[in-house]
Amino acid sequence: MSTPALPAVPRVLRGWYVLCTSDELGRGDKPIQRSLYGAPIVLWRGADGRPAALVDRCPHRDVPLSYGCVKGDHVQCAYHGWEFDHRGHVQRLPALVGEADKPARRAQAYTLREQQGFVWAWGDPDSQAQGEPFTFPFADKPGYLVVRQVMRARASLHAVAENALDVPHTAFLHGGLFRNDSATRNRITCKVERTPQRVQAEFIGEPRPTGLVARILSPSGGVVTHFDRFHMPCVVEVEYALGEENHIVNSAALTPADDYETVLYAVVSVRTRLPAALVRPVVQPLALKIFNQDAELLALQTRAIGQFGSARYVSTEVDLLGPHILKLLTWASKGTELDEARQVYRAEVQMEV
Amino acid sequence: MSTPALPAVPRVLRGWYVLCTSDELGRGDKPIQRSLYGAPIVLWRGADGRPAALVDRCPHRDVPLSYGCVKGDHVQCAYHGWEFDHRGHVQRLPALVGEADKPARRAQAYTLREQQGFVWAWGDPDSQAQGEPFTFPFADKPGYLVVRQVMRARASLHAVAENALDVPHTAFLHGGLFRNDSATRNRITCKVERTPQRVQAEFIGEPRPTGLVARILSPSGGVVTHFDRFHMPCVVEVEYALGEENHIVNSAALTPADDYETVLYAVVSVRTRLPAALVRPVVQPLALKIFNQDAELLALQTRAIGQFGSARYVSTEVDLLGPHILKLLTWASKGTELDEARQVYRAEVQMEV
Amino acid sequence: MSTPALPAVPRVLRGWYVLCTSDELGRGDKPIQRSLYGAPIVLWRGADGRPAALVDRCPHRDVPLSYGCVKGDHVQCAYHGWEFDHRGHVQRLPALVGEADKPARRAQAYTLREQQGFVWAWGDPDSQAQGEPFTFPFADKPGYLVVRQVMRARASLHAVAENALDVPHTAFLHGGLFRNDSATRNRITCKVERTPQRVQAEFIGEPRPTGLVARILSPSGGVVTHFDRFHMPCVVEVEYALGEENHIVNSAALTPADDYETVLYAVVSVRTRLPAALVRPVVQPLALKIFNQDAELLALQTRAIGQFGSARYVSTEVDLLGPHILKLLTWASKGTELDEARQVYRAEVQMEV
After folding, report:
1. At what angle do helices C322-334 and C157-165 cross, to 10 degrees?
2. Could you tell me the sign of the dihedral formed by the alpha carbons of B77, B79, B81, B87, in that order?
């Protein structure tokens, strides 16, 4: 246990991930660096306004292209001035007499989409993208207060996703803020449904949580409609309706900067009878406090997994989504079409909340 | 040599080790974390006053239980509120409908003993302890000044034990404090005796050391009785009688927090004609200075072993105990009953001091 | 890519390397530590003024001898006072009754030469040195301003050597200081010649560079004579003659402290019509600025090679010397006498500068 190592995680490269926000990718002459599962990526916005992304290594001498600068639509290496276009082709090779571009000299390129203020990349460079990135359903909807926030957690995508969608821990780690650990608990029914692209839990009969956030939003109690969803390979979504007036959708695109380093691009959409000017200053600090509690715990979890060299992970029935998320990621990372992976799974579970 | 790694050490898990002092394990609601050969251990004191220790990893999601809190006699995980008793059994599993405890959900438990102000653990969790921990013979004896001190060294248990019991280095590393490197040395006889549980050196004919400590204790010189002992798997003991009146027993239980990180729980017992109020303020700072010289050197030794990837360790006859300690630890770590390991070994060596 | 590792480099141990300057190895009683390909080396100057160097590990207990002190012509270990001479033989072993020196107790010794203010070592300890160290031809020559400088770069010897002798990058990384990236470039001819001991490029038809350094030295332009040379296993040499009056030889002995940590012992010799009092305060800061730009880039290159786990290195015709240097180092590190390695290679390449 002296030289601990974190075990490998399932890496799904064939999928869409957020690399940065549109704001982070300005129009300056300096490219930016991001990473996906440890692979450094250089991003820049060409003179034509289009974002571009390459593997962040000049094929010539391994220097990060992000150390260079933007020249028109190209990125230029700082070392010998090689210039690459958005496809990774060499458009200029100073000093050389002859053709600049040759296949061996090209940098690998990522397919990008820019939408809803995010720059998404197909995770596998130089390959054919499939489908389109996730659209946040309430990110642009009139009548909703929308708050965006970029956060980081020192944990795997899977651990962050499970944590974001897990109900039982809220009464302990966030005791008093959202739910409470009370002697008298209510038994509710949870319907779980898993398809190859998504796993969802629906909570039936859940009373309004007793913590501070819920009491602010719905002082009179009321019936709760509650869904937790994971969309492959990286989106978590918690949807709450409290009474008639309150609708909260807490989503985030999770980007595995590395196996155990996850960036959360969160989009919180709230519709409530309270004015936005009242909701935002109360809800945002509470949400950040809750996230910081999760992030601190997840970092300790990662550290322990490293110390022991593996994850133990003994699950029970009330770990509703985590084990399914791990299955979906594992199957997809193997790239094979397993029979079990194609089937729709449904179950009902009792839980005391 | 670019990516150096420290070589493995013999790990004797089947033995008693000090994990903390009784004082360090208070009655608060926060557990503490210690480690043994790199394995994190959570310790707490239940409402009944009894100490308890488990492997510091919640079986559910790998979160350190030491990040949680004490609930009555149990420790509670901070993540989902699982509660464990001193055997590692699950006493509460919130949200789950059904039985909390199942063998797969249990944490591994350490057998403990609390005596003489120390909490000892059998190093192998969930296994049958054998025998009892070492008793410091002069820790509670009337007429003795007893000083306790917890220290750390960045070196293996074996290197720390050899260093603590080694005579020749004192004239160099601690020159002037204890012994001196003089041109005129005295030839003395050393009797070495090794049994499976202990190795001891007796020094015959040793004059009173010429350094500062010895001159304070025995200004008139006198005959020296001197034993150095290692008790398996972790106790070092240096016993000195100087003349009629002075008796010093310098012992320490060594705890391998990791392969190359050793905690020393030292117990120094002194009987002398000088009053304790005089001895303590002189001897304690000198002892700490000597220890700090050893600790700095041992850290450099460890660093060099890492750089070279292995220990060279060319021993001579006057390395009286170190090679025997390594044999005892190596044999015990293999868990087999070798013929050689069962035999009693005796030798006489000449040494110039 | 989560636990990146730098790939191995060709290590030529059978060759002469600078370990320190004569000034760094004073006459005090403290030895100094240097390293070669990660192997720590202790150096000291005996009472007789002669430098000595051993593998920096006491054979007894692995303690660095550089933590000890100089005793007459010997180095003494801080732990048990063992004393070693310049051959690594044990000259004193305190406490032991009997002979101090035995082959198993000896430290490995380096063959040294001290010349031109540098202490050179044959890189393979306890082996027969061949030939003599490199002599800097203009380090002591009358009429030359000579500036010496010790610098460090976080990159392999090969990467540092290629960088030091590479022409095309100067227009970009050092744009404006030495060369410029201009739309109108001149096509020149480069003659490359490689023998087993050396590779050299001669540049024919090169106009005076347009950057600041060249304009100071030769305001009227003039014809340029320019050679870049690599002498096995570690010397780079850039020789410029600008017009009749200016002669600049920029040399450095490169010492691989580790695979990716190179120390440069630079010797710059300048003969110009300008007085030294004018040249030094202008040229030295510019040279250091250029070196710092190279060092920052080389560190990023090394980091990227570690992140990707290997170097990609797609070379073109105008990478005149780097690929040949790598061949010479690789062949020599294998220690075999390949046919290809023995042949003289000559080529002519066109380059736009």
Report:
1. 150
2. negative
How many Cα neighbours within 13 Å face the side chain of A216?
A: 18
pTM of the model: 0.94
Taken in order of first residue, the domains within chain C and their CATH numbers are 16-122 (2.102.10.10), 145-352 (3.90.380.10)
Question: How many A-B residue pairs are in contact by the CB < 8 A criterion?
Answer: 89
- Using an 8 Å CB-CB cutoff, list chain C residues near A63: 297, 300-301, 304
Closest CA of chain C from B101, distance in Å = 37
Cα(A247)–Cα(A276) distance, integer angstroms: 13
**DSSP secondary structure, A270-309, as one string:** EE-SS-HHHHHHHHHHHHHHHHHHHHHHHHHHHHHHHHHT
Kindly write down the DSSP assignment for every residue of C62-80, as one continuous string. ---GGGSEEETTEEE-TTT
Give yes or no for a contact between B116 and B233, defined as CB atoms under 8 angstroms apart.
no
Q: How far apart are CA A101 and CA B52, in angstroms?
A: 69
C172 and A78 within 8 Å at the Cβ level: the answer is yes
B155: left (phi over 0), alpha (psi -120 to 50) or beta: beta
Q: Do B2 and C258 touch (CB under 8 A)?
A: yes
C307-to-A39, A40, B3, C295 alpha-carbon distances in Å = 8, 8, 15, 18
Does A40 contact C172 at a Cβ distance shorter than 8 Å? no
How far C158 CA sits from the closest chain B CA (Å)? 16
| Sign of the C-alpha dihedral computed for residues A88, A92, A98 and A99 taken in this order | positive
Point out the residue among A300, A317, A350 whose CB comes nearest to the CB of B63: A300
B30 φ, ψ (degrees, to nearest 5): -105, 125
**What number of other Cβ atoms are within 10 A of residue C339's Cβ?**
6
DSSP string, B157-219: HHHHHHHHH-SGGGGTTTTTTS----SS--EEEEEEEEETTEEEEEEESPBPP-SHHHHHH-T
Strands B83-84 and B74-76, sheet pairing: antiparallel
A52-to-A42, A121, A190, C284 alpha-carbon distances in Å: 8, 10, 43, 41
CB of B218 closer than 8 Å to CB of B246: yes
- Which has the closest alpha carbon to B166: B37, B5, B282, B294? B294
| Residues B45/B74, Cβ–Cβ less than 8 Å | no
Given an 8 Å threshold on Cβ–Cβ distance, is A4 in contact with B38?
yes
Determine, for residues B313 and C63 on separate chains, whether the beta-carbon distance falls below 8 Å: no
3-state secondary structure string, B51-80? EEEEECCCCCCCCCHHHCEEECCEEECCCC
**For B168, which of C6, C57, C94 is closest by C-beta distance?**
C94
d(CA C256, CA C158): 9
Instruction: Please give the Cα distance from C45 to C86 (Å, whole number).
Output: 10
C271, C143 contact by CB (below 8 A) = yes
CA distance C74 to C45: 9
DSSP 3-state percent helix, strand, coil across chain B (nearest 5): 20, 35, 45
What does the pLDDT look like over A300-353, one tens digit per residue?
999 999 999 999 999 999 999 999 999 999 999 997 777 888 899 999 999 998
Beta bridge partners of C45: C51
Bridge partners, C75 (sequence order): C70, C84
Kindly list the averaged pLDDT for each block of 10 residues, start to end, along chain C of length 353: 75 97 92 97 96 98 98 97 98 96 98 98 97 95 92 98 97 84 86 97 86 71 88 97 87 98 96 83 87 97 96 96 97 84 93 92
H helix intervals, chain C: 157-165, 212-217, 276-308, 322-334, 339-342
Q: Which residue of chain C is at minimal alpha-carbon distance from A5?
A: C3
The answer to whether B318 contacts C96, with C-beta atoms less than 8 Å apart, is yes
Tokens for C90?
Answer: 């044990």
Rounded alpha-carbon distances, angstroms, from residue B343 to A149, B195, B229, B326, C219: 70, 7, 18, 16, 89
